[in-house]
Write a structure and sequence with these properties.
Radius of gyration: 13 Å
Strand content: over 45%
Order of helices and strands: EEEEEEEEEEE
Number of helices: 0
Helix content: under 10%
Distance between the termini: 40 Å
Shape: globular
Largest sheet: 7 strands, mixed
Structural class: mainly beta
Length: about 110
């Protein structure tokens, strides 16, 4: 019922920046909690950031001060601004709608040294 499409991934040098976008279908985006997860090869999928419909945010300690999650409810889009990227940030990043447990297909982020 809800379709999530991520974009904005790519290859970047350490210290660089990327902005990921997640476009969501449906009319429930504005009232749902939205998350960004990531999964590196051979590792567990981890929660990176979350944002409520009202704009309250939460971050993993590993990305605090470097990543910023935001949303534009009018556009049904959630963003993840990633600054000061490190090689350990390399992963597939997934958009997640918590209500209904919907997932996007993921977008690859690769940070080179």
């Amino acid at each position: 019922q809800v379709h999530l499409v991520e974009s904005g991934g790519g290859l970047v040098q350490a210290g660089g920046s990327l902005r990921l976008s997640c476009a969501a279908s449906g009319s429930s985006f504005s009232i749902n909690v939205m998350d960004w997860y990531r999964q590196a090869p051979g590792k567990q999928r981890e929660l990176v950031a979350a944002i409520t419909s009202g704009g309250t945010t939460n971050y993993a300690d590993s990305v605090k001060g470097r990543f910023t999650i935001s949303r534009d409810n009018a556009k049904n889009t959630v963003y993840l601004q990633m600054n000061s990227l490190k090689p350990e940030d390399t992963a597939v990043y997934f958009c997640h709608a918590r209500v209904g447990n919907y997932w996007g297909q993921g977008t690859q982020v690769t940070v080179s040294s």
